[in-house]
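Dear colleagues,

As part of the handover before I leave the project, I'm documenting each prediction I ran so the next person doesn't have to rerun anything. This entry is a single chain, and its sequence is reproduced below.
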Amino acid sequence: MKIDCLPSNPYMTVRPVDPISGAAPESPPEYDFLLRGVLLTNPGSHPITIERLELDVMADGQELYSRCYRGLGLDERLRRAQSDFQGIQGSIEKFVFGCPRPFESSAAIFEATIAPGQVCPILFEHFRLPSSIAPQALAVRCGTASGDIVHEIGITAPSPRNRYRFPLADTSFIMNALDNTYVLSHRRLQSQEFALDIMQLTPEFSLHSGSGLNGDYPSYGKPVLAASDGVVVISHATMPENAGDMSHMLAEEQVEQLYLEQGELASMLGNHVIIEHAHGEHTLYVHLKTDCVTVKRGDRVVAGQPIGRLGNSGFSGGPHLHFALMDGPDLVRAQGIPCVFDELVDVTLRRPIARPLECGWLVRGNGGS
């Protein structure tokens, strides 16, 4: 039996009890990380039956937390993995696992008995645990009739190496962030795990006024700002926009034609910009307004410089800015990094924010009103 984990080094966030200021908590903080897949491969010539799958979170050789699947629990976990797999098949699959089609080399099955040459994937294991000790590793233990096979990977809590400012100037609403663990969450995409969906609200605190067309959204067309000094490595500006919310999406045949004309990435992201910063960090700005991107590949930008306007292009259910910080420019192989912004304030509590943002927060960026 061979065990692989995707990713091989999961990135972890630390959520203090005081979620806004990041002040030292009186009780243990919460550690959060996502394992996209445990791949159990049978490289031999005889079937192997999994009797137990155990995942142990470790620190300094000590077990902090253990999760075990066996019997009916293992059967149910495999059924859930099959459902997850069916839901991501297609072009999105490689973005989920950070490598092109990890199951191409051999057939994937979702049963406790693995035939020779087949892979049994256990998908999307989410860990969220309070602890006074920071986790350092995850040990995956697969029990079979011939003994246990153990595979250990490291867990790290990365911090940005550069300083970043918020990419919108006005008071903004965080619609989607790292604490959303549902099916459509960014966290299932390796490079977008800590991405944000940002928009603004009407004076009545609703997403839009009127019928849901682009012009009904208060943030539509607002300037999008470079988060830090850097060099533009990707710029795309010609993707047509959806007319508004989910009821105004482009027709399927239009999307298929745009896929052929402008490529897979543009059909998903719409108009977008990727900027390279110091230390190999990259920021991504997605769903920008058509023909309103003001920078091109090779341009040098400074923090706060307008690079485009907030729009509704690509796979988008309404005008908003999708923003991500990554450790590389390749959306398939890069890993997302939790981003902390300079001089960002929680509007409701009137306090500075010193940690990654969460869903539902109202924030004001640098120079915002």
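Residues 71-88 form the longest helix (18 residues). Residues 252 and 291 are 22 Å apart (CA to CA).

All the best with the project,
I.
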